[in-house]
Amino acid sequence: MPLRYKRILLKLSGEALMGDKGYGIDAGTVDFLAREIKEIASMGVHLSIVIGGGNIFRGVQASLEGMERASADYMGMLATVINALALQNALEKYDLPTRVQSAIEMRELAEPYIRRRAVRHLEKGRIVIFAAGTGNPYFTTDTAAALRAMEIGADVILKGTKVDGVYSSDPVKDPKAKKYKQLTYLEVLKKGLRVMDSTAVSLCMDNNLPIVVFNLKGKGNIRKVIEGKNIGTIVRGNNGAGAKKKDK
Predict the structure, then answer these.
(1) Which tens digits make up the pLDDT trace of 110-156?
(2) SS3 of 196, please?
(3) Which site among 58, 159, 208, 234 is 20 to 30 Å from 202 CA-CA?
């Protein structure tokens, strides 16, 4: 089956790694993600990943509790590096060549982020995990995902979540919540929907980069998205802007 997206950036929250635990990293969950990623890697997809750190440390929450914001954000960036190394280890157990590139230099643990090197890794079939956000405080890993996706020429951002798309309100708390199959960037911003933060959505809008929000826990869902199956919610411009020409 032809692929709708050839080069993708998968955005994972730190919470995606903790499974049913309230904190930290769940080995079974990470192994499930590794097996899902192995399936699409075998299809020849160029795959990069941006991962958050909320399962270990939340910079914004710490700043609200009195910690200086920049310091709190740097600590959050370090948490993303821990998660990136955990995911790299799981992927390499399945013989998937993986590189971690960090926006904060730490040569003993990861490569420094260099755009051309990241693209070269992808061209050679390696999975690239981008850690430490943008390397700057006050920017979220959502913004890092949008930035890295554009830098490497990704076709789409896939945002894996706990629910099967974008809803008008929290579907867990509101049984009347409406699911959207498609949204424009402006609708996301005007409605205040929690797809990605406003900076990330604006970056995607300015560069016509589509975002697909889907349920990460569903077996085979990543593959279904890249094959063009109608799951989750797609965010793009009016009249399909943001999709590649072959998708129009």
Answers:
(1) 999 999 999 999 999 999 999 999 999 999 999 999 999 999 999 99
(2) coil
(3) 58
CA 246 vs CA 25, 100, 105, 201: distances in Å: 39, 31, 39, 23
> What CA–CA distances, in Å, run from 112 to 65, 73, 184?
31, 19, 34
Contact 119, 66 (CB under 8 A): no
The answer as to whether 2 is a domain residue is: no
Residue 242: pLDDT band with limits 50, 70, 90 = low
Q: Is 160 helix (H, G, I), strand (E, B) or coil?
A: strand
Region of residue 228 (phi > 0: left; psi between -120 and 50: alpha; otherwise: beta): left
Residue 1 included in any domain:
no
Query: Can you tell me whether residue 163 is helix, strand or coil?
Result: coil
Grade residue 60 by pLDDT with cuts at 50, 70 and 90. confident
For residue 200, give its domain range: 7-247
Distance CA 67, CA 69 (A): 6
| DSSP class of 241 | B
**Into how many domains does the chain fold?**
1
3-state secondary structure of 179: strand
